[in-house]
Amino acid sequence: MQFDQELALQELFEFLRMPSVSADSAYQAGMQQAVQFLQTKLTRLGFKAEVRPTEGHPVVYAERLTAPGKPTVMIYGHYDVQPEAPLEEWRTPPFEPTIVDGRIYARGSTDDKGQLYAHVKGIETLLQQNGELPVNIKILFEGEEEIGSPNLAKYLEAHSAELKADVILISDGSRFSADTPSITYGLRGLSYIEVHVQGASRDLHSGAYGGAVPNPINVLCEMIAQLKDDQGRVTIPGFYDGIQELTEQEREMWNTLPFDEGQWGASIGIDQFPGEAGYSVLERIWARPTLDVNGIWGGYQGEGAKTVIAAKAGAKISMRLVPGQDPNRITELALKHIPTLAPEGVKVHAFEHHGGDPFVVDLNSPYVKAANRALQRVYNKDAVFIRTGGSIPIAATFTRIVGAPILFVDMGLDIDAPHSPNESFAVQDYLNGILTSAYVLDELGRL
Ligand code: BES
Ligand code: MN
Ligand code: MN
């Protein structure tokens, strides 16, 4: 299948130059540019494409239903990206895509603008080749995935009739490895909370008061330290209740994957793998829940030293969840338990940010087999079946409202460094992604 590679890169670069950061209202203009860009492009491809408001950032909804009797495929992606901070860590500007050693460096290059746009170009390639599409296509590109999709469920409920499809196609994650195509069949869920500890009514001289007053930072650290035991298990009562253990069959399947712990660690500069006892690295990431502090603040953060006892300290804590765990219940358990860990003399305020359901897909579906045939056409290899530790909070709601299973055909790699400074997407992965999209749609059209 042929397409103009140079043009495909140019168009993606134009899209990546639009700073579509959903978390920060200073980027309104970038969000607006991105939806306009997508609407214009999809309209040119013969879609009925609209920018639709939500209570937050708009969605782009488009459809081209010109293949009677063929399946209807819903393609989901997100045009919003994570904030670029810390800017000083970027070797090239985050919103000026730059190719270095065969990789496109830019915020959103892999998560998710590059993967989203590979589908747009895959569709275009099919149209150029055949003049028609092999399936009916509906497209929903949202702008709030990176902030937990707070308004999308409401939008979906309100538009459920037009969203019906036979299968949902999503590319918003990582392949198993550079030379192994994969189909992702599970995501972890998420519960994200924040905890504040208040001590004195103002910051104090650490000499004049230290030793005789509660120190909120020390207290917070002691509380956090109690949230996991020496076996790496989360200590929140009830946290593991009802969890679906991974099956022997999955365990065996994962054991045969060509996964090299040492190499994996080396790519991120570590050589020790602490975690829950009794589980391999892949099992811990893909099938076990965990709790991590994602940010912590309090006291003096500036240059040099300042002798001070802060009045207040805080931590942002994410819990990744697996099938059997309900994010609302886990959030409740955490918010109830954490304040009980505080000593007398401080005030604790714990509250929720957002959550999302864990998710697994049935591997025995004709859609999965079709995707495998498509990947064989691109890579000349069978796909492996993997799960991922990341989350797409809307996935469970989406599958319910669309009334169809999700097919996760990821195009990126973890080493693309999504969410980090110097996020990138290999040029080859983008080009293969375009082919993958075209072949997956083609194979779905043969069902
Ligand atoms: N594309 C990721 C999800 C992902 C990450 C899939 C890694 C596969 C591997 C998505 O954009 C994301 O970052 N999700 C957030 C959800 C959060 C912001 C509510 C996540 O997992 O942290
Ligand atoms: Mn993403
Ligand atoms: Mn992301």
Gist of the model:
The chain has 447 residues and is of the alpha+beta class. Helix content is 30%, strand content 21%. A hairpin with a 6-residue loop joins strand 1 (48-52) and strand 2.
What does this entry look like structurally?
With 447 residues, the chain is α+β, with helices and mostly antiparallel strands. The protein folds into two domains: 5-187 and 358-444, 3-Layer(aba) Sandwich (Aminopeptidase), CATH 3.40.630; 189-243 and 289-356, Alpha-Beta Plaits (2-Layer Sandwich). 30% of the residues lie in helices and 21% in strands. The chain has twelve helices and 18 strands. It has helices at residues 5-16, 28-44, 113-130, 152-158, 216-225, 248-255, 261-266, 281-286, 327-337, 366-379, 395-402, 427-445, and strands spanning 48-52, 59-64, 72-78, 98-100, 103-105, 136-142, 167-170, 182-187, 189-198, 204-205, 290-298, 308-309, 312-321, 347-356, 359-360, 384-387, 406-408, 424-426. A six-stranded mixed beta sheet has the order 1-2-6-3-7-17. Strands 11-13-9-14 form a four-stranded antiparallel beta sheet. A hairpin with a 6-residue loop joins strand 1 and strand 2 (59-64). Helix 3 (113-130) crosses helix 12 (427-445). The longest helix is centred in the last third of the chain and has 19 residues, at 427-445. It is globular. It starts with a helix and ends with a helix. The model has no long low-confidence stretch (mean pLDDT 97). The structure holds ligand BES and manganese (II) ion (2 copies). Ligand BES is lined by residues 111-112, 145-146, 148, 172-174, 190, 354, 356, 388, 390-393. Residues 186-345 form the Peptidase M20 dimerisation domain. It holds the Pfam family Peptidase_M20. GO terms for molecular function: metal ion binding; peptidase activity.
